[in-house]
Specification:
CATH architecture: 3-Layer(aba) Sandwich
Distance between the termini: 24 Å
Number of strands: 6
Number of helices: 8
Strand content: 5-15%
Radius of gyration: 17 Å
Strand order of the largest sheet: 2-1-3-4-5-6
Helix content: 25-40%
Oligomer: single chain
Order of helices and strands: HHEHEHEHEHHEEH
CATH class: Alpha Beta
Structural class: alpha/beta
Length: 237
């Protein structure tokens, strides 16, 4: 089945209905009151990669839930994920190489983009890829506020006090991101039409299993629908 077209540039520039993100606290509260079951495991490792400007704290619901089932969970050291994606891809590769066996790779938003690239570059180190609200069909968001902040960071990268720039590496990264996913890594993309940040059409890929949920963009890391989707993937591996 062909993928749906991306929204027009104008529609994308005006952005998603960001008020959808106001649901995130309620989604987290409902998650805290739920009991979504993960099958217990042994000797299974997960590498988590958080999104743009999010930081490790954004995984504060997902990480302990995975740990409770027996997973060895590592949050990749990408900071707030505002620097070059080449830098982040290197950090993800380091996390993958640290394990004594292939890892499950879970990435949110920009982190999901980076996980897709890491899976293509190091398929022997990835046993499963799960992307959450990750716009894998475009490099930069069209939404004006987000794109402006990313472009500002690119300008800062030209100065010593800004995040490190790597124009050549970033060009290779973008090519890898937009090239066909031609490696033998099982991939599930979780997406939402009520995502207030990312165009849902950008989250789809012909090589990925598609799971639609109903939650906010932030809720991808802390909501009942998203956790149920993740549990479906992990419990059926």
């Amino acid at each position: 089945m062909p993928l749906p077209p991306l929204p027009s540039p104008l529609a994308g520039a005006l952005g998603r209905p960001v008020w959808n993100e106001a649901r995130a606290p309620g989604e987290r509260a409902r998650l805290n009151a739920s009991a979504i079951r993960l099958d217990p495991v042994a000797n299974e490792r997960i590498v988590l990669v958080t999104g743009y400007l999010a930081g490790a704290s954004s995984a504060s619901a997902l990480q302990p839930w995975l740990l409770s089932a027996g997973y060895d969970v590592c949050v990749a050291d990408v900071g707030r994920n505002a620097a070059s994606s080449t830098h982040a891809a290197g950090r993800i590769a380091e996390a993958l190489m640290d394990g004594d066996k292939p890892s499950i790779l879970i990435g949110h938003s920009r982190g999901g983009q980076q996980c897709r690239v890491a899976s293509q570059r190091h398929p022997s180190r990835v046993s499963q890829l799960i992307t959450l609200g990750a716009p894998v069909r475009m490099h930069l968001p069209r939404q004006i506020v987000l794109r402006s902040s990313i472009e500002a960071l690119r300008v800062l990268a030209r100065f010593p006090f800004g995040p490190q720039a790597d124009p050549e590496g970033d060009a290779v990264y973008e090519n890898d991101l937009l090239s066909p996913f031609d490696v033998d890594v099982p991939w599930t993309t979780v997406w939402s039409k009520t995502d207030g940040i990312v165009e849902w059409q950008a989250c789809l890929d012909e090589r990925a299993t598609s799971l639609e949920v109903r939650c906010s963009h932030s809720g991808m890391l802390a909501s009942v629908p998203s956790f149920e989707a993740i549990a479906t993937v992990l419990n059926n591996r």
